[in-house]
Amino acid sequence: MNPDLVRLGFTPSFAGHFAALALTEGAPSRLPARVITEHRGAYRVHDGTIERWAVITGRLRHEAKSPLDMPAVGDWVVLDEMPDAEGRAVIQAILPRRTAFVRRAAGVDKKPQVVAANVDRVFLVASLNRDFSPRRLERYLALARESGADPVILLSKADLVDPGPAIEEASAVARGVPIHASSSMTGEGVELVRDYLKDNATGVLLGSSGVGKSTLINRLLGEDRLATSPVRDEDDKGRHTTVRRELVVLPSGGVVIDTPGMREIGLWDTGAGLDEAFDDVAALAATCRFSDCRHEKEPGCAVQKAVAEGALPAERVTSYKALQKEGERLEALSDNRSRAEIMRKNRVIARAVRAHAQMHKKRS
Fold it and tell me: Which segments are annotated as binding site for Zn(2+)?
């Protein structure tokens, strides 16, 4: 394989998918490329040699059933080098994703948003100041587990605050997940992150604004390439310096995706990710007397028994149930939308049948 593509994270698996899709498309000008960033419907892609702007075909846009079917940062795509009328390359297909970090987008539409695709490591970055929240960390972990990538927790700004208490709190809610203190000012933890990205692995940094994601990437790059801003003194909140997701190739090997700070961490598909993030609660829930136990006042509830005995923190159970209910509401909403779409299609078909019948009647 092309070593320049390998540096971008291209693997034999992606090569196989590309060969199959490129053969299907049947044009000699096809080549693989990775999505670097997205801006207003256009995509910056890297083919291992150069970066260029690209757009998707009308067919790909028409066949997309949801935002999940559109290219996302980190995706590998089949690119047609032959430019369109505006000189842009054309994305003919998206290679199957190995992993995908998906959240419910902010706003009233509640549509899914692929934050990063084909990621090996999800770095959950939380500042050791007032930003740190075990409950927010649990939400991030549920999404990270569902993505299929391996989560790693980075507690930033260790030069300002003793990381000991936060590490203890994080360990209680992130069983089995590596937890590291880091500081972009002193360099603590930077080499650990670099080590996680060896062998051309892909990582994504997720967290609130001002926790130091872009600053950490600059340390990994060895230069101040990404814009950064200090947090506000009055509330330790960050400013939105990063405005879009961007994949960055590191000179030492590996790639990392920078993301804007997330004000909302809406779940999209809780699935197995929730039970993996709350494996202690899920294991107890499996032993409850009733399979549909809500872990409230039901007899034989193993979860409430563990809480009463002090073996399980009540706050953790409350968080688990809240995320579980959020997932159930989202599933119900999705079902309602599916039913509405089916009804809409049925109405369109019925109108077409009536119109055809009326036309046939007039002719006869």
Answer: 288, 293, 295, 301
